[in-house]
User: Fold these one by one.
Assistant:
Number 1:
Amino acid sequence: MEKDFHVGILFHNNPKYFELHSQINDHVDAYEIVLGQYATEPDVIDEIKELGKPLILHTNLLSPGSYNGVSRSDLQKVNSRVDRANALWVGDHMCYSKIKGIESGGLLSPFLIEEELSIYEKNINVITKELNCPLLLENVIMFYNPLSEMSLGEFFTKLTERTSAGIILSLENISQCQFYHNLDHYEFIESLPLEKVVQLHCTLGNIEEQKQIPSFYEKQLKHFEVIKYLAEKKEFSPKSLIWELETETPSLASPDYIVEKIHWARELFANKG
Ligand SMILES: [Fe+2]
């Protein structure tokens, strides 16, 4: 029977992840891979597929906020990897990352103005029509003060009403907003259509190293607290939680600790909905 909840890790194209997998593979339901890291080495996708778990693709190629529309060649590139990975879905970001083919160098957040909605709506509808699997869009770091005719939550609400895209909720990206345009975790969560959140992204660091730096440790604990808060929300029933193991600390979390948190997430969400 197909699983309705997949907990796993973001699997970077790096030998240490191939070492790690042998210790956690039995406990993982799915691996997420970042398309950019496999774009030039697509054969590695086959190697990860051989681990026997479903794959989820993550990318920043699609740029749904570009006013000049969606690049057909980027869509084709994503689709070729979707087919190769037999991906459950593709995650990109509610942002723009290029205009007329010129890369911005970052995931630039929406201005949260009315005029933008039609650009995003049109592009997302093109993407969802062409893509060979479902599309999810993730909240990005708010690098600047938006012009704000609406909240970020309202922006997500309107676009998920007008398109078939789902949402990836990134707790780390909310936390990173504090350095630019602060976004409160709970306020943002309350403003989102939680039933449209399909996937959770959360960092998972080496807890012993995090304890040496209070801000890192507090942030990790905050993320756990937010996950528990979400688990209690009746309307929140995600299909996946992906732990992102690359954090500010030098080492990855230990395999035992990752396995413990995989089971913890499964207990919280696997039987919801
Ligand atoms: Fe992301």
Note: The mean pLDDT is 94.
Number 2:
Amino acid sequence: MTAPAGGLLAGAARETLREKLRALGFDEVRFARVGPGREDSLREWLAAGHHADMAWMERTAEKRMNPDLVLAGARSVILLGVNYWSEASIENQESRIENPKWARYALHEDYHDTIKPGLAAAGRLLEQECGAAETDYRYYVDTGPVLERGWAARSGLGFRGKNGMLISRTHGNWLFLASILVRQEIEPDAPLRKKPLPPAEAEPAGLLCGKCTRCLDACPTQAFPRPGVVDARRCISYQTIENKGIIPRELRTGIGTRIYGCDVCLEVCPWNRFAQEGRRVLLSSRHDLAERGLAEILALTPVRFAEVFKKTAVKRLKLTGLLRNACVVAGNSGDRALLPELVGLAVHEAPVVRAHAVWAVRRLAGESPASRLLQEARAKETEASVLAEYSADL
Ligand code: SF4
Ligand code: SF4
């Protein structure tokens, strides 16, 4: 590499860095210049309460809007995409429609863990090739105080769809994004828009959506107050993963068979037609999760839960969160054979599980059989949130 430490990395030297980063397993490598970003949309989203109870989004907002607060002197950001589209995974899940549905990304070992070694190797590469010190860069995969989708749009990696996701013209909606903030100045890649925006202007959603509104129309819980904006409070992904408490009753039927996350607004996107199998260097598949039946999940013990979901992102939901979601899916399933498990869960130690189990029993059994089935559980119940489920309108 020819660029001196701190000098502009451009031309052939930049392309060599791109190739070496690709060789580490990143399917997309793009560069953006760090500049003053006017992220009004983030401010508005937070002010409207669309982040639900994700207080960390508020706490990190300033950093997200000002990369200098994350890495003083940051001049560039390297955007890295890992393609997780897999035909085998889709076929496996679609051939088992009787089973609960998982967001596609969840059918892997936790991607934070599998992508991080690639980022650590990328950091070492920056040290060797650009003369960077360890303190001259910071990397994140998805959870850092970095507006990855905004930077990715700026770098031309893709565009922000009306579904709020970063959409790639070659990978569709199926990219994990990671980023490295660096003090090294790197010549930026061109964005997809022909007429670049002023440096401080944020990329609006829907650049290459045209008149399409499929994602907005298909959302089962009407979580889009407007194109490009997701109200987490109504989003199944938030409710089944981030929310640790009671799922609002009015959203439960919309959850359908989705036990963990939701891909509806991604799956319907026509840009997915270009998606191809990735190299999967930084991923480890766990397609077997899609083979678990609902009865098996409802009967999970803590030991079995730890065994089955070891190394996956689902383990962070904990057994109580998964049982809660499984109760919702069971309530929507119409399968009365699940009633014995659900009645058992109506006396589970966690109130959040009991509440959703009661809802599911009432929904599956109908009012008077449910009252008989739940008689014992109700007699013991003292928790207000659970008692509310016995009398709620269904
Ligand atoms: S993830 Fe599902 S619930 Fe959330 S906005 Fe998309 S379609 Fe709606
Ligand atoms: S489904 Fe249509 S509107 Fe939604 S992101 Fe894809 S192209 Fe855009």
Note: The chain is about 40% helix and 10% strand.
